[in-house]
Amino acid sequence: MVAEEPRAALLARDVLVDGGSAADAAVTMFFALSATLPSSVGVTASGSCVVHDPESKTVQLLDFLPRPSSDAPNAIALPLAPRAMFALHARHGTKPLGELIIQAERIARFGAPVSRAFAEELAADGAVLASDATASAVYLPGRRPAAQGTELSQVVLAATLARLRSEGVGTLYSGGLSREFIDGAAAAGYAVDPNRLNDALPAWVRVTEIEHDNHVWGLAAPTQNDLRLVQAALGMLLKSGEWDTGDDGDRADLMAIALSEATLLAASNAPVGPESLDLAVSRLTAGRLADTAQQPQLAATLGTSSGHRAGATSFFAVDSRGQGVGCAVGLGAPFGTGKMIPTLGVFLAPVQAEAVNGPGAYALIVGNENTGQFHMAASGAGGRRAISSMLETVLDHWVRRITIEDVPALPRTHYAGGINTVFVEPSMAAPVVGDLRQRGYQVAPAQTIATGSAFRCVEGLPRRETRCGAAKDPRSNGLMFFEFGG
Q1: Left (φ > 0), alpha (ψ -120 to 50) or beta: where does 31 sit?
Q2: Measuring CA to CA, which residue among 102, 109, 117 is closest to residue 7?
């Protein structure tokens, strides 16, 4: 499994070692991240998960993408993630749900050192909390962001997690916690329709958008636009058959055009599927970038910088039975709206995610629906550039057939469409930079470009003898770990 905060991954590892399923591990990571990475994850989060189920031989999407809390202009996002985790566990979990929540509850109640991952996000974006007395008292002691290693207790959040564990997650939607959520949101200036909260349900959808090499490729993202974006970009790049031709400059150009075309497809009403992808591939192979009139749209989706941005994260887990779960969740912006409900210890999340250089995170699961075997999982996190980090990691391994352990060392690029600039990591060869400039791009340096992690079992899981490998990204502050016990 992998998570962008190490304590969450360690707790998920313990669940797998103790015989839990990949779904159990994913649920554990979500609740743990709510306590260890509240800048990007929380009880009020939205998103999606993609699941390979070896028993039904299907790849399915669990949709809990952002939905408005009311028709009022001051609506926020409904807190869909707890019900989604309940649905994931109900269908694919094996251990009691309470056991998966209690670890996060203990971290929040008894405290734990601030990790490097959270410390960096808090230092970069914690200023948004200064105007909220409750949040600043917890995360800005002495009016300064809590540093790495600082012991952090979140007693109120612990009480909320305890009620979700003991009363059931339904309490947030129609029980005692629902009234506190509605009243707390109103006090912060946001309207929540009780009926919408009560009816807020995740949905299971069979994945059909992308088939390649006789496998189904399922993707997850925190928002509908990001989900359509990554589906379109990956679908085009796989169907074009051009990723393994040419050099690094050709691939950077191909990625830029694919992201440009994917932005336009994601914004249209056309479904992402074989017909729309075929049309987009024809433009991709013609080597045509979107024109300058579409720069604002490209900026809103692909950003204008290479910088890290909190507000969303991704994680995945795989078990020895061949179950694979990848999730991408977020709060729409770092710490959501920056306003906390004092009686619950959770941040309210905007219904519209921050655009341009806002959050971004993605997850991928690849399975074979004929054999029922899992084959690959991947994730990317760190802002708008995360789409590039995950796609490059996956394509360099699957299409170029580079050993998965060697993929993280390859230099990455990201196309910031809003300024027609390709950001490149320092290890990118100088001739490639020159080639990109000749193609008409601006080129700028980036110390690192997000994180991209992957796990692949070539023969698939379950299998008696496995040949598996992992792309452990040194750019990440998180942790990757796999355990395949009997």
Answers
A1: alpha
A2: 117
289 DSSP assignment: P
Q: Could you tell me where the DSSP H helices lie in 111-247?
A: 116-125, 133-139, 155-167, 171-174, 176-187, 194-199, 224-240
| Average pLDDT of the chain to the nearest whole number | 94
Sequence-distant (≥ 6) Cβ neighbours of residue 269 within 8 angstroms: none
Res 463: pLDDT: 80
Residue in the block written with tokens 């989706």: 301
Assess contact for 39 and 121: CB atoms under 8 A: yes
Max avg pLDDT among 154-168, 234-248, 269-283? 154-168
Angle of CA points 331, 224, 238, to nearest 5°? 120
Residue recorded with tokens 């710490």: 335
CA angle 127, 130, 136 (to 5 degrees): 110
Q: Computed over its alpha carbons, how large is the radius of gyration of the chain?
A: 21
What does the angle CA 354 – CA 356 – CA 359 come to, to the nearest 5 degrees? 50
CA distances to 94, 221, 237, 349 from 475, in Å = 33, 21, 24, 28
CB 253 within 8 Å of CB 440? no
For residues 377 and 357, what is the distance between their CA atoms, to the nearest angstrom?
26
pLDDT bin (cut points 50, 70, 90) of residue 273 is: confident
> What are the Cα distances from residue 177, in Å, to 160, 182, 198, 485?
8, 9, 11, 39
Domain ranges of the chain: 2-205+308-351
Q: Which region among 60-64, 269-273, 321-325, 371-375 has the lowest average model confidence (pLDDT)? A: 269-273
On the question of pLDDT at 476 being above 50, the answer is yes
Interhelix angle 386-398/248-267, nearest 10 degrees: 120
